[in-house]
């Protein structure tokens, strides 16, 4: 039986993945790939919260040895988002590393060891489709089992970080008009920083929020602010009024003692017009034609600082090929142990050096540069970076 014939039952394979118990997806994938392509070994690797390693999903709480997320064959597949075929010694065959991404959110890598001579291009392509189907099921299974969330951890999350990661929409999103990549640090102890987005047929709404304080207090504040913004957004309320209602919710709870700085952006997918509300400290940069510039918005009051604050929208335009980068205070306001501010100059240098990279890697590189500047991964302030590449809508 040739490889093409072997893959004809894949629609039913996807159905079997959907029918599998949430905890049994890896075992089901092993069985299906052994039946259809003679796979001798199948391993699911999930990216850890810090995007440093790829963690094998095995029998928890014990996990197999992780592999680097940016080196080696599996790391290369994760980094480039392209299949990597590793040639083993003759009797061992080939090890195919397939990126697993769900609607632009990079989850990890599926590693499949095939008999020698069977890793032809058509088989690798179809294995890629299978990996995507498995990724969708892993994402859905997170509602019903902790297995895959546990497998991502190299150590225990703080309670505040647990709350924040559950609040996030993911770490990436991709459509014809745009690609988003985002990163947070300290990944295992994040408290008040958040990013959020929602897309429809006509628009994208993107927010970056920095809740005042640290730990549980910051996480609770940010959860309230993000929940209020989502509630207003889902009622089809305009951007400025979304900020007004979230401001009222935060003030009603805290009486102005604490507040949440927020940047709200509403993109018209057809025209590239962006409506913006700058309610606090997150900063926004744009890269266009080899230049990096800060988009100067009218600085308005953070959410919850005063009662019934009114907010005003501003507009600017994005063009195909533009890259936007939003950073929280924990990025542009962090100082090194010597007291040197990370600042705009260092940020511009990193953004310039990473312009050819994908948004995910640019966001990670900014945080990596911040950590190097600070001198430790244990940042005092949370750091959030969101990178968006704008392609525009084809006419």
From TrEMBL:
It holds the Pfam family SpoIIE. Gene3D superfamilies: PPM-type phosphatase domain (3.60.40.10). GO terms for molecular function: protein serine/threonine phosphatase activity. Its EC number is 3.1.3.16. Keywords: Hydrolase. InterPro entries: Bact_Sigma-Reg (IPR052016), PPM-type-like_dom_sf (IPR036457), PPM-type_phosphatase-like_dom (IPR001932). SUPFAM superfamilies: GAF domain-like, PP2C-like. It comes from the Bacteria. Residues 175-390 form the PPM-type phosphatase domain. This is PP2C family protein-serine/threonine phosphatase.
């Amino acid at each position: 039986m040739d490889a093409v014939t072997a893959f004809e039952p894949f629609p039913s394979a996807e159905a079997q993945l959907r029918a599998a118990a949430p905890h049994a997806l890896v075992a089901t994938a092993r069985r299906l790939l052994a039946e259809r392509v003679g796979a001798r070994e199948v391993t699911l690797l999930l990216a850890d919260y810090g995007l440093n390693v790829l963690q094998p999903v095995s029998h928890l709480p014990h996990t197999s040895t992780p592999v680097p997320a940016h080196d080696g064959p599996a790391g290369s597949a994760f980094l480039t988002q392209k299949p990597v075929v590793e040639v083993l010694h003759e009797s061992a065959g080939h090890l195919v590393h397939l990126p697993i991404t769900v609607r632009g959110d990079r989850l990890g890598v599926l590693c499949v060891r095939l008999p020698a001579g069977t890793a032809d291009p058509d088989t690798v392509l179809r294995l890629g489709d299978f990996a995507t189907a498995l990724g969708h099921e892993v994402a859905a299974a997170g509602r019903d089992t902790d297995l895959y969330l546990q497998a991502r951890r190299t150590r225990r999350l703080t309670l505040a970080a647990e709350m924040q990661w559950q609040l996030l929409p993911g770490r990436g999103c991709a459509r014809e008009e745009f690609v988003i990549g985002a990163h947070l640090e300290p990944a295992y102890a994040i408290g008040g920083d958040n990013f959020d987005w929602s897309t429809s047929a006509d628009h994208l709404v993107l927010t970056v929020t920095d809740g005042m304080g640290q730990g549980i207090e910051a996480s609770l504040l940010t959860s309230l602010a993000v929940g209020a913004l989502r509630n207003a957004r889902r009622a089809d309320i305009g951007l400025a009024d979304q900020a007004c209602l979230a401001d009222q919710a935060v003030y009603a709870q805290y009486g102005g003692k604490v507040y949440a700085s927020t940047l709200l952006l509403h993109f018209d997918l057809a025209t590239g017009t962006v409506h913006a509300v700058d309610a606090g400290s997150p900063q926004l940069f744009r890269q266009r034609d080899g230049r990096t510039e800060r988009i100067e918005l009218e600085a308005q009051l953070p959410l919850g600082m005063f009662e019934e604050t009114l907010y005003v929208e501003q507009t600017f335009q994005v063009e195909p090929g533009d890259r936007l980068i939003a950073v929280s205070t924990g990025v542009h306001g962090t100082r090194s142990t010597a007291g040197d501010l990370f600042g705009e100059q260092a940020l511009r240098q990193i953004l310039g050096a990473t312009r050819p990279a994908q948004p995910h890697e640019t966001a990670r590189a900014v945080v990596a540069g911040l950590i190097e500047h600070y001198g430790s991964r244990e940042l005092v302030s949370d750091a959030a970076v969101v990178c968006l590449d704008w392609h525009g809508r084809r006419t």
